[in-house]
Design a protein that fits this description.
The chain is mostly beta strands. It has 1 helix and 16 strands. It has one helix at about 1-25; strands at about 40-50, 55, 55-60, 65-75, 80-90, 95-105, 105-115, 135-145, 150-160, 165-170, 175-180, 180-190, 195-205, 220-235, 235-245, 250-260. Strand 4 (about 65-75) and strand 5 form a beta hairpin.
Length: about 260
């Protein structure tokens, strides 16, 4: 009799515990796939630039117009994955970039893919990655940014794709060479209250590359002085930046404005 009572008590406790656990599980909000609702790791961004200047290069020398950069970002424990579009408001220029990187403390390593779709035809060759035909530019990037020192160093190399130029020998024979354009940028910054920041960057190409028209070896190609003002709107912060950019290779200067929306 005692054994029966003991078994009944155990069964009652187990049933009660199971019911409580089921009740707790039922109270956890779930999405339409039955998974637990949680904060999203996805984010949206939108940049507006009055003129697209990238690493000292003027990306639109004709029919220049302001450019919009919409993007989707995924972040998780140091990993960063993104896809970014670029479109001039006059429809004369476009770009699609996607990539990923991983950050551990002060060290970041990443890979990017740049592609410039045609703006004059509905037909394109986005998935053409053939060595001598592709319009993609694949880039490896390493960034060192010490946490307690206001300096950073970024080194980039286009290791595959449309980074090519033609060489003609003394006999008039032409040959297409992969440039492996290499760029390094050293920067520093000075912070103010409310996260406003003044920054200075110096960029250089290390070989005949897209940064110097495939005409020179080592060359300083980008000097940029930028001030970023973080506009606070209730619980939202909108970074606004103005920058003076000088490219010694082209002996050309620009003043640019940028607004960066992030959600």
């Amino acid at each position: 009799m005692k054994k029966v009572l003991f078994i009944l008590v155990i069964m009652t406790l187990a049933t009660s515990a199971f019911a409580q656990k089921a009740e707790r599980n039922d109270s956890i909000p779930k999405n339409n796939w039955g998974a637990k609702l949680k904060e999203s790791n996805f984010h949206l961004c939108l940049d507006l630039q009055t003129k697209y200047i990238w690493r000292g290069m003027e990306m639109m020398t004709e029919n220049s117009a302001p450019v919009l950069f919409p993007g989707i970002i995924y972040t998780n424990k140091g990993f960063y994955v993104y896809v970014l579009g670029g479109y001039s408001i006059n429809g004369k220029w476009s770009c699609i970039t996607y990539g990923t990187n991983y950050t551990y403390k002060w060290f970041t390593v990443g890979v990017n893919d740049y592609y410039y779709p045609t703006t004059t035809s509905p037909i394109d060759q986005y998935f053409n990655y053939k060595p001598r035909e592709t319009g993609h530019l694949l880039e490896a990037v390493v960034t060192i940014a010490p946490e307690k020192v206001p300096l950073y160093l970024m080194v980039s190399n286009f290791f595959y794709g449309a980074d090519r130029y033609t060489v003609t020998d003394s006999d008039g024979n032409s040959k297409v060479k992969q440039a492996y354009s290499t760029y390094a940028e050293l920067g520093t910054y000075y912070d103010f209250l409310n996260a406003h920041r003044l920054s200075l960057a110096l960029g250089a190409a290390f070989n005949k590359s897209c940064y110097n028209g495939y005409q020179k070896g080592f060359s300083i190609c980008n000097i940029e002085l930028k001030y970023t003002y973080n506009l606070a709107i209730k619980d939202f912060t909108l970074p606004l930046s103005a920058m003076f950019i000088y490219n010694p290779v082209c002996n050309k200067a620009h003043v640019n404005f940028q607004a960066s929306f992030a959600f």
